[in-house]
Amino acid sequence: MPSARDVIESVLGKPSVFKSKEKLFPEYLPPYLPHREEQLRALAEYFRFLLVEPGTISQRVLLVGGIGTGKTVTARRFGSDFKYLARQRGINLEYVHVNCHRDRSLYLVMQEISRQLRVPVPHRGLSAQEMYSVILKHLEERDQYVIIALDEFDYFISVAGSDAVYFLVRTYDEHPELTKRVNFIFIARDMSNLGLLDAATESYLMRNIIYFKPYTSRELYDILKHRAEEAFYEGAVSDDVLSYVAEIVGVDRGGTGNARLALEILLLAGEIADREGAQRVTIEHVRRAHSHATPSLVHTIDSLPYLQLHELLVLLAAVRVLRMKGEPYARMGEVEREYQQICEELGLRPRKHTQVYEYVMNLKRLGIIDAKPSGKGYRGRSTLIGISVGPLDMLERKIMELVEAVRGEQPE
Ligand SMILES: Nc1ncnc2c1ncn2[C@@H]1O[C@H](COP(=O)(O)OP(=O)(O)OP(=O)(O)O)[C@@H](O)[C@H]1O
Ligand SMILES: [Mg+2]
Predict the structure, then answer these.
(1) Residue from 24, 72, 265 to probe ligand 1 pocket by mutation (most atoms less than 8 Å from CB)
(2) Are 103 and 111 in contact (CB under 8 A)?
(3) Which of 212, 246, 272 is the last residue of a domain?
(4) What are 355-410's pLDDT values in tens digits?
(5) Rounded-to-integer distance, Cα 408 and Cα 372, Å
(6) Could you give the residue ranges of the DSSP H alpha helices within 326-374?
(7) Whether residue 253 sits in one domain with residue 109
(8) What CATH number is given to the structural domain containing 252?
(9) Residue 144's CB: how many other CB atoms inside 10 A?
């Protein structure tokens, strides 16, 4: 029988198909963005004035496109490279990227902007509006310009409301005497939420739009090829395997054209190959990876990092109850009891019922869970909670990983 150390060592010494797996992770910012040259060029056109006559206008650009079409990565890549080029020309430019999923109020957005710009603001007592003034003053004092990308902006519109949007968009209408230092990139999946705004604000936002279309299989092939070269050892992934993934996801082949899904399938296929001790990724590995990575599960897993700790715990409780029961729905009460137990195990103070209910509603808004009032056949009125994506064990694992990570960062 092998000793424990032998078992551990056998894993450490095991060869892998990956040379740098994190190059496939969503947070990695690749140097190449195949098939987004047009969008990058358009962004450069819109913001070119910052290099020539900064301060003359406050630019606003809207990026619109479906899931996984590269909006976030293109904005980040543009921000990082444009900032570099501006600084080379002696212009003090910053790029700030805020995810409105996580920072879902004007106050939280302002807090995040000041954090990224390293603006010293008093922790307590300032309203969002006052914080914004402090930021504007800070930029003025340092002769600094900024491009602020508000990602998942459609979500911000529905949660923070049109007054918050109005406030941002009209920054310099209030202060025509100020040098225009703040510029925005708004990022949204579709434009339906813009209809919630008043007509003037809506037309303000709609002036400069850059569209992101779902990727075709040929485009996805090029994207995968670049990322695979960085992530895998040479020869570990054949062109056939890359084409196969690209064809599963390509919009021209009936797929969704979501690059995130394509990358997730490739990553999973590599992990399956590693687990089997295979030297290369095969079509069969891709097939199995595909059956695991349904788009909706990818969407859910992608949303997890934006949840607060206790939201994650409530979700974890729902997953556990649903797994235990093996039924499509769990009752709110059951989920809440499980949640309290999880908190106890982790040594955390559980949140009150009304707060837990808020979390459930937010998880529903994000499309992570399904929540509905119980109908007939149940004693008493209750909320029923369901999760339509699967497999739940995989979801549970991902939530656990995040809970661990979040807990590592902060004690409570
Ligand atoms: N042209 C590209 N080249 C390389 N990688 C890409 C490209 N387009 C997208 N990706 C990768 O695909 C994944 C999804 O892209 P991204 O997060 O930018 O999509 P999105 O449009 O913001 O989607 P969502 O609306 O869901 O937020 C990321 O890992 C990103 O790095
Ligand atoms: Mg995005």
Answers:
(1) 72
(2) yes
(3) 212
(4) 999 999 989 888 888 888 876 555 567 889 988 776 788 889 889 988 988 877 75
(5) 34
(6) 332-346, 353-365
(7) no
(8) 1.10.8.60
(9) 15
